[in-house]
Fold these 4 entries.
Entry 1:
Amino acid sequence: MASNEQKLYRQAWYLSLFTIFYNLVEGIVSITFGYADETLALLGFGFDSFVEIISGIGIAVMVTRISRNPASEKSQFEKTALIVTGVSFYLLSAGLLVGIVGSVMKNHRPETTLAGAIISLISIVVMVWLTIAKKWIGRKLGSEPIIADGNCTKLCVYMSIVLFAASIIYELTGFAYADVLGTAGLVYFSITEGRESFEKAKGKECGCEGRCKP
């Protein structure tokens, strides 16, 4: 393998590690502020970050595998990580749906959503950069799996945008159901990510936009 190709795979691996550690920090901060401010959307965003860590570990293993043998198939560890990720996303979605029902029935309002606006704005910037970096490296290597990983990172961008919009709307208008609507948006994307994880575990290539092929 050429030295330049090795360098690109090493960069892809570092991006995977960065994704894992960033989600760890983001998850801890989001859950802490989400609990303190009683905002369901931010809590859900935090739990999503921890699910992304499981996925990130699987991606790091994938990058290591294809750097050694680009033509090799998914390892059992990768498949297990994808299945665990899929189950976790579905469980998260179910939990958030229960939270939505509870919030509506109690007419619950967060104390503030300012932390959500700040955290999501930072996440948008970081995830856009990660998307561009992963897809650039994937194209340089001609690696569809790494490009697909970059495409999947776009879902994190969309989730961050949903949280940011819900947080800003509530902060500026006090609209009672802004937090609930933001949480509903997270449920949609969590279900999407869960479905993609199961499809990939079955050996299908997915673009994280609802398109999978054998």
Entry 2:
Amino acid sequence: MVQPSRAKWIPSGIIVLGVVLDLVTPEGVTSAPLLVAAPVAAAPLLAPRGIIAIGALAMAAHAFLAWFDGAFGWQRDVVNQLTLLAVTVLAVLINRALEGRDARTRRARQIAAVAQSAVLPRPPSRIGELRIAARYVPAEDEAVIGGDLYVVQDTPHGVRVMVGDVRGKGLGAVSAVCADLGAFRYAADEAEDLPALVAALERALLREGARRGGQEQEEGFTTALIAEFADGLDTVRVVNRGHPPPVLLDAEGRATPLGPSEESPPLGMGALGAWSSPVDTFPFPPGATLVCYTDGVTEARDESGVFYDAVVRLPLLVRHRAPATPARILHLLIEDVGRHTGGRVQDDQALLALHRPARSDRPSGSTAYG
């Protein structure tokens, strides 16, 4: 088990403390109970050999102190020695149990990582001139993927992007993420424009919900941001279905939220009514970066309950930091959210940054990705 180096000295420190206390206290006071704590403390911190060494050191310290006091009693002190021996054996057994549990946890995380790469693969670093970076920060340490998603796909109609957040938690949310991604990968190539793409997503989610026994009422609502980059990357077209608006970070580091002209509900609610999907078009100048994220960022709160404001913080983060690559921007943003919350990840965070270089060399061919 990997532990901080300083923590490994705790058992030895307990023995030293026990010896000191025994020497400075009256003869009738014994430090045997404190020495017993040393191998127990070593159980989660050291390997079996180290635990045995700590146990032997505690026994030796106890014998020395009894001899030094001239009060070694066969009845009392032999019992204490046997107690130290038994506790040392118990500490080794506890260590082996903890090691087995950690090994199972590591295997589970490896399996989860493989599942994540299959369900939510990382986008390519570039498609044509567009530079791309993505990050996923799970709310739970043992989880690798949850209900947030991102996908970037090079299509006959341009580069299309979706960032979304499925309502719900657990395996049901992961299942809904799979449905969202599968629907997008197919519809992004087939739909002529963004309204047609959104309509295809709605139909696919409703069909998936019906097959899953009404998933649309449990885990099927998905807040989604769907974007399409025009040829030449001069503009970006955006449909927002109940999702936090993206932020356009220009070459000078100024941040502008790209809010929707008309509010629309999340995807998967078509059974409750019909809503339009207005397409908003924004300039995407050279040197600009479109930063998209889920509400794990916008709803992150500090100890006073103040929400994180990426529009305010992003210009401060990239100021005097060159080059502000997409990966660097996301790294700075995630670190800043962590500082704002005191290190507590309160909800899953999916982040996507798409950058148009001020000067770029168009690669030969483009990459298809879904």
Entry 3:
Amino acid sequence: MTTSLQGIRKNKPLRNLILLGAAAVIAVTASVVAVSVQERGVRVQFTPVQMYPGLETKLDQVAKIRYTLARGMRESEKITLVRGDDGKWVVVERKDYPARQDLVRKALIGVSELVLYEPRTARPEWHRNLGLLAPESLGTSSRVEFFAKDGTKMVALLAGKVPEQTVDARGEGMIYVRRDGEDQTWLARGRLPLIQSAQDWLDQTFLDVSRDEIKRVTLWAGTDHPVVMSRASKDENDFTLADIPKGRTTRGAPIVNGAATSIVDLAFDDATPVASLLFPDTSPKAVFETFDGLRLSLTMTGGGGALWAKVEAVADPALVAPGTDMKAAEAKAAAITARTAPWAYKLPQAAGSQLTQSMDLLTHEGGLPE
């Protein structure tokens, strides 16, 4: 051991190299300790605060909400929600179709309740790691902006990644955020809907017809081969398929009932002004009639699995016994017309298939021979 030490002392270059290595280790260790102490100090000293203090008292002043969403190599997409004079919100990118009011409220309240929980990096080159690079810069963040009626910007934030397994018992979770135009990033706590498509903001209130109400259904109405399914009373669970050709039989009650009740809880994929589409005279039509005298007609156009439908609702006394009170049917027809008349609706593929079922599809060979 003594011999080795003497050798190192005599070998000046080796001695200097060892001394420099030791100094480097000491410096790195000191830096790590200093950073750790500093981070602990910052976290201990920082008190969580609202991202936008006082915003909760000004939500009634918000007249426009704009989301800017990343689309990779494509240009970023905007979703704009505007509050009308009646206080109702609409989706500008869908020709002012009514928005989901409950979802808009969640967006308003969500931003107002965001709490900055811990500071994170303020270095722009690290924004991408937190998902906070601006969407226009090929980032993945979502920009959320609130505007007052006069155009004043009230809120502008970028929302980034959501750390895994951070939702608590109240349904709140963690998300990385930064104020637009600022480099400082934060780990925030709250609930903020970051809807990624304009369609998902659309109010899905549509036809509002229950299964119990449906009395008779006619698919391909107005053609030479209509498909009629009906039941005599609400007590009957199954619909009866009329005019089954000889030599054929139905594919079973579940298949027939599925077609007859296809508008129950029907949602839509998208909406557009009805005047923007053509509905030829040969368009397939499905007609639903209720026990209280409502007739609901869906006329369809399109193809390739993308059917669009326009809706007509009327109350017809001819559908019920003489003297029947038509007030409920009239009120429902008026409500449906007010809601749907200006629009055409893109139907889910499964619903479009049900509404265009033919006799051949609802039956198969196996009935009595001719």
Entry 4:
Amino acid sequence: MSSVPFAPRLIKGALVGLDPMNPLASVVVFQYNPDTMTRRLEPRTAGGQPGDKGEAYRLSGPPKETITLAVEIDATDAMEEGDPQAGLMGIGPTLAALEMMLYPKLATVIANTVLSVAGVIEILPATGPMVLFVWGPTRVLPVRVTALSITEDAYDTLLNPIRAKVDLTLEVLSYYDQPLTSPGRALFLAHQAVKEVLAVTNIANDLGNLGVSL
């Protein structure tokens, strides 16, 4: 009889939408963690004219970061196991949870329509949920979903999608993009603090291989 060693519990990535009136407005835990993720960082320079020697290293804020990744969603295993939700709706609820991160609340839309009919001149645009990209305990980032592309691959007999690939483009919202009292601002500051600690830790590993003294 062979024994299987204890395997570490796999942490799943996720997107979580938070709303003041609905603390968990939308939660999507990735069924399968993507194998790859692309992160693009662009520095926020302080401006100045080309050749201005005093401005060469000045930064006005943290870099603009864009994250792209592809997520696969599949209900076939759940359907074979007799999951009632998968049998009735396929992956429709998961796709709806993703899409709702781009929608204002219907109640707010209706309320704004009533105000418009009543003759209110200035109506503030509806606010969507604050979206968090969760990728392990050290990377919880406030993001804006800037692109969401869904490719549905298979359907059940009621034409509910049962398998799909979702391409996500996320814009990281730093303290530069958020008000002082925003919880997302505090989350980003904590993320940067962790990153600074990791960068200092790396110095000890690399200085010995540099070949020069600093």
